[in-house]
Specification:
Blueprint lengths: L1 H37 L3 H25 L9 H8 L10 H14 L7 H18 L4 H20 L2 H12 L5 H22 L18 H23 L9
Helix pairs in contact: 1-2, 1-4, 1-5, 1-6, 1-8, 2-4, 4-5, 5-6, 6-7, 6-8, 7-8
Length: 247
């Protein structure tokens, strides 16, 4: 039953995530067109850009604060709190609010990503599906975890990365039931999203030469340095050097 519901949730997550990405592309194109028009209209163009961006941002903030406060931020920290049992899942109303608010905020030019909204909308849908089919609280959490992977897979056109994101970031452990649900949901989501968006890769990188044997020890030194720097940063931020528990 979980596998069937995971596929159903993946279809919904792929549809929502795909439409969200198309809407963001439209918003980017409209913003760029407005900027192009503003270049030839001096102060009027400047006022139109600033006023339009400020208005869109204010509407997005108003929708979140008044209707679904849990839609604030990226949404992923809230999902982690829900899966750990410390927070209440967001209602289904979050989906349209996050969708519209995300398009307005990101479309206005704010430096935000599409992965957080895609993940949180998919998880809210999964919670609603789990309740509709009268699943247990444990099953609902498994479905929500899998839906998070489906949302991330849709955001970046990367189904395997979505499943790994669930096990590494959301639950922090390998669980066979969660792995099956995450893979099923991600596969279903990608099948729908690619019908809307195509199968092109999101990040195109040029060919990089690895270098000869002489340069390889420097890769090892770079890894050791960055790993040590990451440990130092994390412990400094969480007070780990003073023996306090991590945040």
């Amino acid at each position: 039953m979980l596998a069937v519901l995971a596929s159903l949730i993946g279809l919904g997550a792929g549809l929502i995530g795909g439409l969200f990405r198309l809407s963001l592309q439209w918003a980017d194109a409209e913003r760029n067109a407005l900027i192009g028009w503003a270049h030839g209209h001096s102060w009027l163009g400047f006022a139109a850009i600033v006023g339009g961006a400020a208005s869109a941002t204010c509407i997005a903030a108003f929708l979140v604060r008044r209707l679904v406060p849990t839609a604030a931020g990226s949404g992923i920290p809230h999902i982690e709190g829900v899966l750990k049992g410390g927070l209440t899942p967001a209602p289904l109303l979050l989906v349209p609010i996050k969708f519209v608010g995300g398009v307005l905020a990101i479309g206005s030019g704010l430096a935000l990503g599409r992965e957080g909204p895609s993940v949180q909308m998919a998880v809210s849908l999964a919670h609603w599906v789990g309740q509709t089919f009268r699943r247990t609280q444990a099953d609902c959490r498994v479905l929500m975890a899998g839906a998070g992977g489906a949302g991330l897979a849709t955001a970046f056109n990367a189904p395997l990365a979505g499943a790994i994101f669930v096990l590494e970031e959301l639950v922090g452990r390998f669980d066979p039931r969660i792995a099956v649900v995450a893979l099923g949901a991600s596969a279903s989501a990608i099948s729908v999203a690619r019908l809307l968006l195509g199968d092109a890769t999101d990040f195109v990188l040029p060919d990089v030469t690895a270098g000869g044997i002489v340069i390889k020890p420097f890769y090892i030194l770079l890894g050791l340095f960055t790993g040590g720097l990451a440990v130092f940063y994390n412990r400094s931020m969480s007070g780990g050097w003073r023996g306090r528990p991590r945040l």
